[in-house]
Write a structure and sequence with these properties.
By secondary structure, the chain is an alpha/beta fold. The protein contains two helices and nine strands, in the order βαββββαββββ.
């Protein structure tokens, strides 16, 4: 299955990489954190690791480490603006429970 971006999220990532002037894609993963156990981590990648998995979505390379993939496989990443707030929204079909603040999740 992999990980995908909406068109809005892809445009945001492409614009940011262009402003940075470098980057091979967006690294998406999970880490242990928060009140529900796991939290997402996003960073722009300038290089690939030997064991990285790559998914192409809307013209953007998404990079996932093999340990994170079972937690985010099938996830769609969106970018939303609501009033003055903007940010990524994680549409993850694997999530069974989220904390009240939306910063962490359980699978």
């Amino acid at each position: 299955m992999g990980v995908t971006l909406t068109e809005t999220a892809a445009r945001h990532v492409q614009n940011f990489i262009a402003k940075r002037g470098k980057g091979v894609g967006l690294r998406i993963g999970v880490r242990t954190s928060g009140c529900s156990g796991m939290a997402y981590k996003l960073e722009f990648a300038d290089s690939l690791n030997e064991d990285d998995l790559q998914f192409l979505s809307q013209g953007v390379t998404l990079i996932v480490d093999p340990k994170s993939l079972p937690y985010i496989d099938g996830m769609e990443l969106d970018f939303q603006r609501e009033g003055l707030n903007e940010g990524f929204k994680f549409n993850n079909p694997n999530v069974k429970n989220e904390c009240g603040c939306g910063e962490s999740f359980q699978v």
